[in-house]
Amino acid sequence: MIRIKNARIMTLAGDRPFEITEGEVWTDGDKIAFVGVPTKEQLEGAQFEREICAMKNLIMPSFKNAHTHSAMTFLRSYADDLPLQEWLFNKVFPLEAKLTGEDVYWFTKLANLEYLTSGITASFDMYFELDDYVKACVEMGFRSVLCGAVSGDESNADRLEGYYLKYNGLDPLISFRLGFHAEYTCEKSLLERIAALAEKYKAPVYTHNSETAKEVRECIEKYGKTPTQLFDSLGIYNYGGGGFHCVHMSDEDMDIFKKRGVYAVHNPGSNTKLASGIANIRKMQEKGIGLALGTDGPASNNALDMFREMFLMTGLCKLRERDAAACDANSVLYAATVGGARAMGLDDCDTLEAGKQADLIMIDLSQPNMQPVNNLGKNIVYSGSKQNVKLTMCAGRVLYEDGKFVTADAQEIYKNVQARAERIQNEVKN
Questions:
Q1: What is the pLDDT of residue 79?
Q2: For a Cys staple, 257 with which of 155, 223, 262, 394, CB 3.0–4.6 Å?
Q3: What is the C-alpha separation between 409 and 395, in angstroms, rounded?
Q4: At what angle do helices 156-167 and 130-140 cross, to 10 degrees?
């Protein structure tokens, strides 16, 4: 077992999720074994392979990145400050066409390094070359939920089902959710087949949804319905799921999300950089829609930083509503942790409780931006940063501690990523 002692603890569980207590957290294998103040008898009966003194720093559940495209690290700052369509079709797609599985392996490892520095222990990833992606995550001890990214015609439903059966149960760190890229990249016949898969497996479905006004307008022109209304009419959301971005949602769309238990995964950094708009988070909260937070990919954000996403989530909502009381910071912290875990189907990774997965972080409170200690939860959202992540643990393994990566050679990853990014750029130019 690992013993983390002399800690402040925020469990995010129960009726007082943001309450700060003092005590210890013990982990046994990949699970949390104990949270609280141990008795003398408990201590005498316990055997620890390692003891960590937290020195009054904060132990809390890790962040969950509920929407990303990790391997797009190779496109970071390659083609910025361009209109969306030009960026996507003239810059992104030509380079992605040159990717190999080994490229995805190294580019994913780079993203995982960045996640760990931000206290993220799980990503909800939509991309391709999945075997190589999975290999990168498992080698690093990083948890990931794969999201189906199929598009095109109905034949691709067979591929989606194959992935669903292959990757669920493959490794304790890996799971797979039914999903497709977006309404505008899928034929209706494929959407109907995906609805049939959702029914067959009683499974939730995830997709990009209402990211841009153009996407919604053209869907209405084509089907007489918004994307959300179309998906619901086909039965895609009969077992819940999630929508990524959800910037341009009508009241009826939100009512469908609430009725079907569909999560809205907010991506404020990407939405800002691509000028997609500001999601109506206040109304979603008022309607009781489940909220999660994601970075989106490193080509459209460009950072994989949950602290920045949290500040943007609350800040942009306040700006949109012209109300400084909108989008309370505690609700943002909850979306970035518990909300993300539940949106991804990681219900055993959401809170700090005995029997849950040992996915947790230590926040360094000795840094200037964390002093004085008043309201820790809100301070993490409003002034916290990566510099405060002292330790990141996933499934009971310490993966990042005091600025050092435990399960990966960062310099080797940087070298491979640079060489491969340059090769791909040269192939496109030539």
A1: 83
A2: 262
A3: 20
A4: 20
Cis peptide before 172 (omega within 30 of 0): no
> What pLDDT does residue 88 have?
81
Task: Report pLDDT for 82.
Answer: 83
The answer as to whether 341 is a domain residue is no
Query: What is 364-401 written as a DSSP string?
Result: -TTSGGG-S-S-HHHHHHHH--GGGEEEEEETTEEEEE
User: What is the distance between the alpha carbons of residues 238 and 256, in angstroms, rounded to a whole number?
Assistant: 10
Which tokens go with 282? 């206040």
CA 277 to chain CA centroid, Å, is 20
This prediction has a pTM of 0.97
Residue 372's CB: how many other CB atoms inside 10 A?
6
The label of the residue with tokens 């469990």 reads 11
Distance CA 71, CA 103 (A): 8
Q: Distance of CA 145 to CAs 193, 350, 361, Å?
A: 22, 14, 19
Q: Cα dist. 297→3, 70, 286 in Å?
A: 35, 6, 28
Q: Alpha carbon of 308 to those of 51, 269, 295: distances in Å?
A: 32, 8, 9
Q: Domain for residue 87, yes or no?
A: no
For residue 200, count CB atoms less than 10 angstroms from its CB and return exposed for 0-12, middle for 13-18, buried for 19 or more: exposed
Query: Containing domain of residue 35, as a range?
Result: 2-61+349-405
- List the chain residues with pLDDT less than 70: none
User: What is residue 143's three-state secondary structure?
Assistant: strand
- Give the DSSP H/E element, type plus range, for residue 9: strand 2-9
Distance of CA 379 to the CA centre of its chain: 21
Residue 157 lies in a domain: no
* Token pair recorded at residue 263: 């999560």
Task: Please report the pLDDT score of residue 86 as a whole number.
Answer: 84
In angstroms, the CA 59 to CA 392 distance is: 10
| Residue 360 DSSP symbol | E
Q: How many domains is the chain partitioned into structurally? A: 1
User: Is the Cβ–Cβ distance between 165 and 203 less than 8 Å?
Assistant: no
- At 383, which CATH number? 2.30.40.10
Residues near 205 by Cβ (< 8 Å), separated by ≥ 6? 177, 178, 179, 180, 194, 195, 198, 231, 236, 237, 239, 241
H runs (alpha helix) in 6-129 = 40-45, 84-86, 93-96, 101-117
